[in-house]
Design a protein that fits this description.
The chain is of the alpha+beta class. The protein has helices spanning about 1-15, 135-150; strands spanning about 20-35, 40, 45-50, 50-55, 60-65, 70-80, 90-95, 100-110, 115-120, 125-130.
Amino acid sequence: MKRLISVILFFFSMCCYAGDSIRYYAATSFSYKKVVNGEWTDWSEWEDSGMIITLNLTKDIVEILSPKAQIYNITEYNDFNIDKDGGRTAKFSFVDQEGYKGIIRLRIEKNGNSQMYVEYANIMWVYNLIRIEDTLVTGLYQMNRIHTVFSL
């Protein structure tokens, strides 16, 4: 029960104000690493990104609007930590739209920098995040959705 309360407090602390439970972020850049010959590679070079990330706490869904939309259904809230440097991390399990399982970690450093890690058994991504206003994202979200649909 304490973990659940900690995770809930973490999500509220990610936001500048209380309101509905949908939060929008822009990924400014991303990096990845994968397993090759049984070993994790180093992180790739950072790549610029304009992806929109939606965190819907009501429906327990994280959605990343990339060229191939990524949908992660949260199945369990696992952990919440504050490290010795004051950074906060929440970790939860998910099942994606193709049925694969993994872990998402949301991290906020003491200086306010935010990152989201999407981890599978053989590949993981990290996204540098900034929070964007709900009114701004509505238009961007719809435009990206239309672009994604017509790019298929």
